[in-house]
Amino acid sequence: MPTGYTAKLMEEGQTFQEFILGCARAFGACITMRDDQNDAPIPDKFEPSDYYAKNIVEAEEKLKWLKTMSETERTAFGEAEKAKEIDDLNSYINKTVVENIRLEEMEAYVNAWYPPTDDHLGLKKFMLEQIKISKNDVSYSERSLDCAKLKPPLAYYTVAISGAKRDINYCTKEQAKKIDRVNDRNEWIRQLRMSI
């Protein structure tokens, strides 16, 4: 039975070069092509994704915007961020409480159920385990909510500044790694092409 790599060889025939380049899709340099059409050509050169480069620009723009704020704008920004965090935490806690109530109600039903045979005892145990591991502890979120209510608005501004700087630093490092990986992939392809 042919595989995705041998189908063309078996059905139509292939040159060694076509076969090796098709099989190369299963290896590091071409791994991102493994799900492409089998006849999609392997490029002579891969280009790095612009994901991190775009994030660097966005973080730099955000940092610049934050640094140009007046004291009043910084406070307003912090108040808006604080309100959003408090709202998000309240929503999460309320949703989790409702989910936990549903789980507890079902747990009561499961506990009250008498399995019809000993062969069904495992099912009851399994259902109770699933309920137990699905319950969420909201105490961390409640503590976070208490902290958010006490945090001054300017602390949110400071966090946003450090977050933008951290994003710039992280994305710059990741972009450099991405470029190195692409360069390695391109060298692998170059060496493969030279060998055939």
Mean pLDDT over all positions = 91
Question: Would you identify the regions where 5 or more consecutive residues have pLDDT less than 50?
Answer: none
DSSP helix fraction = over 70%
Largest sheet: none
What is the 3D form? flat
Number of helices: 7
Over all CA atoms, what is the radius of gyration? 28 Å
Q: How many extended strands?
A: 0
Secondary-structure-derived class: mainly alpha
> What share of residues are in beta strands?
under 5%
Distance N to C terminus: 27 Å
Q: Note the run of SSEs as H and E.
A: HHHHHHH
User: What count of domains describes the coordinates?
Assistant: 2
What does this structure look like?
It is a single chain. The chain has 196 residues and is mostly helical. The chain has two domains: 7-48 and 185-195, no CATH class; 51-184. The protein has seven helices and no strands. The protein has helices at residues 7-11, 16-23, 51-67, 71-112, 121-134, 139-150, 153-195.
